[in-house]
Design brief:
Blueprint: H1 2-12, E1 17-21, H2 26-38, H3 42-47, H4 52-67, E2 70-73, H5 80-94, E3 98-105, H6 106-111, H7 115-120, H8 123-134, E4 138-143, H9 163-166
Parallel strand pairs: 1-2, 1-3, 3-4
Helix pairs in contact: 2-4, 5-8
């Protein structure tokens, strides 16, 4: 989902995008972007199991992607000061118009600073500050842990970080079928 946003902004609207990937390597991000642009299954791309027509399509679609102003930082972790500096450099030198931080796990948040510092200076508040200082949107993707069979809720974000206090918009993506739920309360299929 978030890489589709990055691809659409950069390829379809020629907006410069900076991606800070805490989970995937630069090569994995590129392969997923190629998959999104060419509509070829990521697994087939990674395995190199492409038919001739798929290979031609991938080559054709990759041209527009390679011209797109996408800049990827795949450092596995960073301090907020380092992130602020890198973001500022991208804006000043590459005219970045959107920053995406993908994919923050609660465990990684604890690594970004000690707990007392996080309580006093919330990571999401700092991301919001960077957005305001640089006058560009910053999208942070937070992966919640296993919630069992229920869908995510705002209360899942409250402890210990109060994300809803610092975010302008919160969007939850949920796949009920991943929890074994095949229909909603009204009997509509979720698959």
């Amino acid at each position: 989902f978030i890489l589709s946003i990055a691809k659409n902004a950069a390829v379809d609207f020629a907006k410069s995008v900076g991606i800070f990937s805490l989970e995937l390597t630069k090569m994995q991000v590129l392969m997923r972007l190629i998959s999104i642009e060419s509509e070829i299954n990521t697994e087939k791309l990674f395995k190199g199991e492409l038919r001739d027509d798929e290979l031609q399509l991938m080559r054709k679609k990759t041209v527009s992607l390679m011209k797109a102003p996408i800049f990827i930082d795949d450092s596995p972790s960073f301090s907020m000061e380092e992130f602020s500096w890198k973001a500022k450099q991208l804006v000043e030198k590459k005219n970045i118009e959107l920053i995406i931080v993908d994919c923050i796990h609660y465990s990684q948040l604890m690594e970004l600073g000690d707990y007392d510092e996080l309580q006093n200076c919330n990571v999401f508040n700092r991301l919001n500050d960077v957005s305001k200082k640089l006058n560009i949107p910053v999208i942070a993707v937070l992966q919640l842990g296993d919630l069992g069979i229920r869908s995510p809720q705002i209360s899942d974000l409250r402890q210990p970080f109060d994300v809803e206090k610092d975010a302008d918009v919160i969007i939850f993506l949920d796949r009920p079928e991943a929890h074994g739920i095949v229909e909603d309360a009204k009997g509509n299929s979720t698959v």
